[in-house]
Structures are given as C-alpha cells and as structure tokens.
Amino acid sequence: MAGKIRMKSAFAAIIGRPSAGKSTLLNALCGEKVSITASVPQTTRNKIRGILTEERGQLVFLDTPGYHNSDRKYNNYMMGVVNSSLDECELVVYVVDSTRPMGKEEQELIDMLTASGKPLVVVLNKCDSNSQYKKDIRAFLIVNVHPESIIETSALKKEGIDELKEAIFKAAPEGPPMYPDDFYTDQEPEFRIAEIIREKAISKLSQEIPHATYVEISDMEMKGEGDKQKLWVRAFVTVEKESQKGMVIGKGGDQIKQIRREAVSELNKIFPYKIQLDLRVKVNPKWRTKDYLLKGMIK
Ligand SMILES: Nc1nc2c(ncn2[C@@H]2O[C@H](COP(=O)(O)OP(=O)(O)OP(=O)(O)O)[C@@H](O)[C@H]2O)c(=O)[nH]1
C-alpha cells in the first residue's frame, strides 16, 4: 500500500545583514515580485509574506529589515521586527553576503540566531561575484554556526534556488498548508501599492533621501464595473524636509510624474483592474521619531 505523502509547512524568516540580498532572494524563491529591492541598504521595513506552495508543501516567508545594531529609535523598531519574525517562525533562512567580510555585526547576528534554537538554513548569496572573501566566510560559518550545509546562491541570477528550496523543505516540519494554494502573498493591496510607489521613488532619489521617505495612501476607491473596473488611489510621497520635497517633485514636476508612470505600469501588471494614481508629495518633519507612524508602518 502506498504511503500517504507527508506535506511540509513552515513559517520561514529570511534574516541577514542589510543588503545581503534577502528581498531579492524572496522574490527568486516565490517567483513573483513580493518585496521591494533597492541598492540602498535597509529599504525593507515590514514583514512581507511571500508564499511558496508546491506539491511537497507550503513555505510562508517573512522578510525582515537587515539586522543592524544601533540605539537609534528607528533601528530599534527594525530590530523589533527581526525579533518578532524570529519568534513566529519555524525555521530561519540566514542570508550571508559573500562579497563582504564577516565582522562584529555578523557575529552578533549569529549569536542571536543560534540562541533562538530555530533550525537554520545558511545561504551564501551573491556567489556570481566570485568574491575574495568567500573561502574565509565559509570557514567562519562552519566554525561558528555548524550548519548541516551552506547553500550557494545568486539571488540576482536565480542560481542555486532549487537547491535552496530543497534544503528549506527538508528543514521544515510536517503540517497542512496555512493558505490557499493560489496565494503568493497576503499583503493588503494598500500596502503593496505603497511599497511599489516607494520603490520607484527610491530608485530616483539620492542616497540620503530614501530613508527619509515613506508613502501614505490617503484614499482608495473602486470605480466602474466588470472590465471597466478601476482602482483610484491618492498617495503621498512623504519626506522630512521642504528641500527634499523639491527633489522628489523635480523640475517642472518631471520626477514625480516619472515615479507615477513607473508605479502605475508595474501596478497594472499585478492587479486584475487598472490603477489610477493621484500622486503628491508632502513634508512631515521628523516622521522617523514619531511612534504612531512607525507603529502603523511596521506590522
Ligand atoms: N551580484 C549580486 N547582487 C545581488 C544579489 N542579490 C541581491 N543583490 C543586490 O544587492 C542589493 C541589495 O539587495 P536586497 O535584496 O534589497 O537586499 P536586502 O537584504 O533585502 O536589503 P535590506 O532590506 O536593506 O536589508 C541590490 O542591489 C541587489 O540587486 C546576488 O545574488 N548577486
């Protein structure tokens, strides 16, 4: 008699230092664009769930902001998100950037992960870069983490992803799926729209501004019926200073129009209805020190 196929099911937290490639890896694993990526560190602020459902089971990924030790209020919130993901998950996908040497921060992160007692799947990412540090990093991980294996990936080129999935499913406990099998993310439309606008804005702005930016959706309304259905959205790109406002708007409004066009084009690929976006810029001084905003943003 054939044995019953045992399904795997787990919440898996993707944890690593800023810019290790966590969001890119999540997208490669789930095959859909679920988390924004950027070349500026610490662009991920929320726990974003990407869901991978296969015959062998279901993995629900929690993306976290890069682990970064700092006393500043903003970073403390970020760390709260990392810690709560660690509490909620059944296993950790620990992402290490093979192009950067190990340091104190990495050691602290390893201490935190090993103390959690959760199974760790160790990923050495950016292996397309042929880094001079790779050999030393491997040795460091073997001594300090004692992993069963280290999976080498290029999240960017989608290499090593099948092997990584195999390792994660192997580490996952048995259980029934937690979401319907056609779900690939449980983010609310409002959150996804804000994240995509933020990604488009960040890609246009200079190094200092991205961290001073968040996107607020102030109104949404579904208009029309059937094929003609449209979602009308009013959103604000919010910055900290008047001088930054001008930089986002650009000469003659060129920049904000470009951000709007790019965001709409991407949103129209994701949603089954057309998106009509009214995009504006406003100033909210020191929003990063305001508890109520941070609490609303970091779920
Ligand atoms: N060469 C190379 N670059 C990569 C790879 N994976 C990610 N990157 C790049 O590294 C940068 C950071 O990637 P993200 O996926 O945003 O990193 P993250 O760890 O989510 O970043 P935070 O949200 O800041 O913690 C981006 O410019 C990516 O294109 C990879 O496998 N190879």
Automatic annotation (TrEMBL):
Domain Era-type G: start-end pairs: 8-174
Cellular compartments annotated: Cytoplasm; Cell membrane
Sequence segments annotated as region (G1): 16-23
Keywords: Cell inner membrane, Cell membrane, Cytoplasm, GTP-binding, Membrane, Nucleotide-binding, Ribosome biogenesis, RNA-binding, rRNA-binding
Record-linked Gene3D superfamilies: 3.30.300.20, P-loop containing nucleotide triphosphate hydrolases
Main location as per UniProt: cytoplasm
One Pfam family cited in the UniProt record for this chain: MMR_HSR1
Record region (G4): 125-128
Any one Gene Ontology molecular-function term assigned to this protein's record: GTP binding
GO CC annotations, alphabetized: cytosol; plasma membrane
Residues engaged in binding GTP: 16-23, 63-67, 125-128
SUPFAM superfamilies documented for this protein: P-loop containing nucleoside triphosphate hydrolases (SSF52540), Prokaryotic type KH domain (KH-domain type II) (SSF54814)
Keyword Cell inner membrane: yes
Region (G2): 42-46
Region (G3): 63-66
Subunit structure: Monomer.
Recorded family membership: Belongs to the TRAFAC class TrmE-Era-EngA-EngB-Septin-like GTPase superfamily. Era GTPase family.
The protein, known as: GTPase Era
Source organism of the structure: Spirochaeta isovalerica
Origin organism lineage: Bacteria, Pseudomonadati, Spirochaetota, Spirochaetia, Spirochaetales
Gene name of the record: era
